[in-house]
Amino acid sequence: MKLAVVSVAVLLVILIACPVSTRAEGYGDDGDDDDTKSWFPLDNLLSLRYYDKICPSFEKIVATKVSEWTKTDPSLGPALLRLVFHDCGVTGCDASVLLDHEGSERKSPASKTLRGFELIDAIKSEMEKSCPGKVSCADILVAASRDATYRLGGPYWPNAYGRRDSKTSYARDVEKVPSGRRDVTGLLETFQSYGLNVLDLVVLSGAHTIGKAYCETIQSRLYNFNGSNGTDPSIEPKYADYLRRKCRWASETVELDNKTPTVFDNQYYINLRKGEGVLSTDQELVKDPRTAPLVAAFALQGSLMFKQQFAVSMAKLVNVGVITGEDRDGEIRKVCSKSNSGIY
């Protein structure tokens, strides 16, 4: 408990220094956002006002399309958030995950359950009508995932723009994305390679407060944990019984948050402390002394703290490995699934 209290104090200091909004203040308008300049890096030619003159309708087009599509299919919200994680976590936030050709990230077995590509294509098509050749697919993906998170009740945060799109994409690079079976040390090493820290790891894992997992990813925990032909003992027994009944078939899905699966809240952390984490990487956060106090802090302090810190950590994540106008290996694709050269 003392560790949890210390963690809460640390988090409060961070949040006071890094103000964000849990509602869309200025959503879609031209309000002053100078107060946001101190809470994420702008040293790579990205700008908060990048599209103000060259494509002033950028944010409105993205917000409108995301709203339309997620009303029809609410599951696209979690899908977009997962899609941007997979993009930024491979070679950086460069839309490489959107390229669709033999041997691309999108063709990797690890990417087979990714969704949301059609929505990004629809936004890009509309953008090309209003601002031809001005808006990158990487910026669209970052903006769409933020708007989808907000539509689910998550926080709103201002994005800096000016990313270019990668011209290449390789399936072998997808191995960099943390899998559902890595331990905390492996996860931390991956996050640190992105310039993120242990707090970012815990809070971004909280994205699992929404969405589903395919049973294929957890069957080893349920039926043959560590070769024992049994179930992972860290899973709460009644919940383990439910998962075994639910996941007889690998193609079935299970909610990542079994209590409030469609609400962006802190229930994920409460579940972890009860042994109700679906993925082993989630449940490991409770066991490791580096992450357990943070899990406790988010579980005990309600949803507001989680939402605020999620916005801060996401603003950091979407700046990982970006390509900018001065980089020779980037472009603004005409179609998100193809490079402009036509090679891929």
TrEMBL record:
Superkingdom, natural source: Eukaryota
Record keyword Metal-binding present: yes
Keyword Glycoprotein applies: yes
Residues engaged in binding Ca(2+) 1: D87, V90, G92, D94, S96, E105
Entry annotation: catalytic residues: H86 (proton acceptor)
UniProt keyword annotations, A-Z: Calcium, Disulfide bond, Glycoprotein, Heme, Hydrogen peroxide, Iron, Metal-binding, Oxidoreductase, Peroxidase, Secreted, Signal
Binding annotation for Ca(2+) 2: T209, D257, T260, D265
A single BP term in Gene Ontology: response to oxidative stress
CC cofactor: heme b; Ca(2+)
Residues that bind substrate: P178
Residue span, Plant heme peroxidase family profile domain: 45-340
Disulfide bridge map: C55-C131, C88-C93, C137-C336, C215-C247
Molecular-function GO term, any one: metal ion binding
PROSITE patterns: PEROXIDASE_1, PEROXIDASE_2, PEROXIDASE_4, PROKAR_LIPOPROTEIN
Cofactor note: Binds 1 heme b (iron(II)-protoporphyrin IX) group per subunit. Binds 2 calcium ions per subunit.
Signal peptide: 1-24
Subcellular location: Secreted
EC number(s) given by UniProt: 1.11.1.7
Record: residues binding heme b: H208
Site feature location: Transition state stabilizer: R82
Catalytic activity: 2 a phenolic donor + H2O2 = 2 a phenolic radical donor + 2 H2O
UniProt similarity note: Belongs to the peroxidase family. Classical plant (class III) peroxidase subfamily.
Protein name per the record: Peroxidase
Organism: Arabis alpina
